Structures are given as C-alpha cells and as structure tokens.
Amino acid sequence: MTAYPSDAPASQALLDRALAVTPGGVNSPVRAFRAVGGTPRFMVSGQGPYLTDADGREYVDLVCSWGPMILGHSHPAVLEAVQQAATRGFSFGTPSENEVALAEEIVARVEPVEQVRLVSSGTEATMSAIRLARGFTGRSLIVKFAGCYHGHVDSLLAQAGSGVATFALPDSAGVPKEMAAETIVLPYNDIPALEEVFAERGADIAAVITEASPGNMGVVPPLPGFTAALRRVTAEHGALLISDEVMTGFRCSRAGWFGLEGDAGYAAGAPDLFTFGKVMGGGFPAAAFGGRADVMAMLAPTGPVYQAGTLSGNPVATAAGLATLQHCTDDVYTRLGEVSDALTTGVGEALDAAGVPHVIQRAGSMFSVFFRDGAVTDYDTARAQDVPAFAAFFHSMLDQGVHLPPSAFESWFVSASHDDAAVDRVLAALPTAASAAAAA
Ligand code: PMP
C-alpha cells in the first residue's frame, strides 16, 4: 500500500497543544513515542480493525486499546448496549442490574471465582486484591516478579514491566522506601528463588501476585511447572496466590489464561484471587477482583477490609463490558487464533528473509516479537533485545498504515474484527519493515 509521510502535522499540532497542559502531552506514558521517537498519532475514530488519525490516515490497529477491543472498534452490539444504557442515566450511585449480570458472567466463565467486586481500573483491582490478601492473612509482605506490571500501585512498581520497562526505570520515584521494603521482587520462572524466599520469610508473606501469563515485558508464558510451583509453595506457607488476568482475562480463552492452563497448570488448586480488566470493560472503565468466597467476605460491608468507588459498577461501563463478554463466543476465540497464526507466521517469515534475529512468543492470541535470538523466559532475557531494530520496524509499519504498540516490551493485540483484508494489509507491510529493521 502507499506509504504515509513520516511526519503527521495534525497530530503534531495536537501534541504541541497537549504538551502545554499535560506532562509529556499524554495521559499514560507509553502513548508518548519516547522509546521509538516521532509523533504519537492522535486518533479520532475507530471502526472494526481500523483507527483513523487526525491527519485522516487509516491504520490497521494491533494495539486494540492495549487489549480491551477484542471485538474491534465500535462493535454494533456493544454500541447499542452503551447507547441504551446511557439513555437511562450515566451513574446512579446505587446498585443496578448490569453489575449483577457482569459479575455473573465473570463467575460463570472463570470456574474458581466465586465472588467479584467491580472497580474502574486494573490498578484499582490489584491494589484492592493486595489489601484484601493482607487483611485476610494478617501479613504484609508481597512477592512479585520482575517484568510483571500490575498497574501503578505503589508497592507493585518495583522492576515493573510495561511503561516502566519501556523507559528502563528500576522503579518509581515517590514510593516510600518503607513501602518498597514490603515487596520482594523475584525473577520470573525461577522456582528455586521462590522456594528460597519462602523458606526464609514464608510466615510473613501475605501473597504472591503474578501475571497469569506475563504480557508486560513482551509475552513470556510460564514455563511448564512454574504456575504449579506458585500454587504449591504459597499453599504450604499459608500465603494467597493472586493471578493478575487484567490482560489475559477473557482474551487468551473464554476463561482467560486459567482457561488455557487451568487445573493442570495450577495442579494443587486454583489461585485464591484473580484480577480482571481490559476486555471485561469493553473499552470503558470497568475492572474487577474476585475469587474465594471466604476471602471476599473480608471486604466491607461484610468484613473489615475497606474498599469503595463512586463509579464502581458504572451502568454504562458495565453495559459495555457485559455486551462485550456476551459476544465473546467460541467463534471469536477461533478467529483471534487464526489472525494470530497468520500474523506470527508472516512476521517470522519476513524477519527471517531479512536476516533479522527474532523470537516470537505467544499466549493464546496474545503474542510479541522480541528482536533477539533465543527464548525469553524472564525480564533479563526480555531486556536483552535490539530496541533500535524494533523502533525502525515500528516506524516502517506505522508509515505503511499499521499501528503497533510503540514499545518492544508489549504484547500485540488482535480483534475478531480483523478480517482477511486487514490481515493482508499487515502482511503486505512486513517485508519493507523487516528490511528497515535489518538496516537499523
Ligand atoms: N495488570 C496487568 C497485567 C496489566 O496489563 C495492566 C495494564 N496494562 C494493569 C494491571 C493495570 O490496569 P489499568 O491500566 O487499567 O490500571
């Protein structure tokens, strides 16, 4: 297809305005093209697999709002549900039926989840799950894994993935050292390190939190036996296991990563708590945490762990989430798999042909491309990649009308609306982008 010019005057004009009133011109750091350079595109509309920017250029979207848009942009059934809900009112500050229906849908899909509490972001979900785990166990230490991102919760920002990885920050300024000291960071996929830390401090550890299958350092699925070890070791020491499925939930399968790895993966039993977001909000601010009923009973108003939200269970957001999940049928997951198969094959062939070292890793339909040789199993191996080659590849794809995540440390996301025409547009752009990566 015809290449777009690399400059984007209308987006640049908006960025200039934004820079005057917003730090870095963006409301979430990875949206700024800091890691890849250039002008972030200001989008004005989305339809199915396409986004259109302020310069009127159309892109095949492989970010999908960082996960939520699993059915594609402006899906007619979700739009209808949102319009109808908005007609009835925007926010009641009382319970309403859609909240119940959305909770029922989640509980029905993810077998170990008995109860959920709705919140408005993945960050809120993980923050609340951690407070709950601490309240339930009466302990304070939390174990997390380097390269996993769980939102911008103070105690979870140490060696975090996503934007923290993109900008190569060890952690965040502004987190009190006392709070950072409550978090133990371990290498991902390292069972001996986990066993060692529990042998030393097991009686003080409230919970292990892990991305069910990490996607925030690129896609790094658990090695066989790792998930089972997490369950076994936490159970032995009376700590809770929190599986963060904000990214994988309802995307890797109808029951998320749990639906793929399931009982076999967890071996000694399911995680105690889960966190969800992204897909379950259908592009609106809705997220959740949930799990064992006896643990959830510790939450106010039934228990002593406080947690609340003015907009929690918002009627418009829950309508969007419910309609999205109701349309996430088996056919949708089949199509997501087909699109990912086609794209990963195409990317692999193009990079091979151009002689660019790479490894492509997958978790269901989530995948990412590491510009390096050899499998990535943890944050150290994820970081050892050719970021300039990625940046060259990214810009070539963008100029050819393909919108990729602007970071080498993020998953690519597809939707069920990615039809053959959209896939073919991506495939057609790959050889030129691969040559650009080779020349970087
Ligand atoms: N957990 C995971 C695994 C995530 O991927 C994210 C966001 N990318 C979050 C938590 C935080 O969610 P939010 O951005 O909605 O706060």
Describe this structure in words.
This protein is of the alpha/beta class. It has two domains: 9-62 and 329-439, Aspartate Aminotransferase, domain 1; 76-327, 3-Layer(aba) Sandwich (Aspartate Aminotransferase, domain 2). It has 15 helices and 13 strands. α9 (256-266) links the parallel β8 (240-244) and β9. The longest helix has 25 residues, at 330-354. The mean pLDDT is 96. Residues 66, 121-123, 126, 149-151, 162, 211, 216, 244, 246-247, 277, 287 line the site of 4'-deoxy-4'-aminopyridoxal-5'-phosphate (PMP).
Strand content: 5-15%
Q: Which class best fits the helix and strand makeup? A: alpha/beta
Task: Indicate the CATH topology of the largest domain.
Answer: Aspartate Aminotransferase, domain 2
Instruction: Count structural domains.
Output: 2
N-to-C SSE series? HEEEHHEHEHHEHEHEHEEHHHEEHHEH
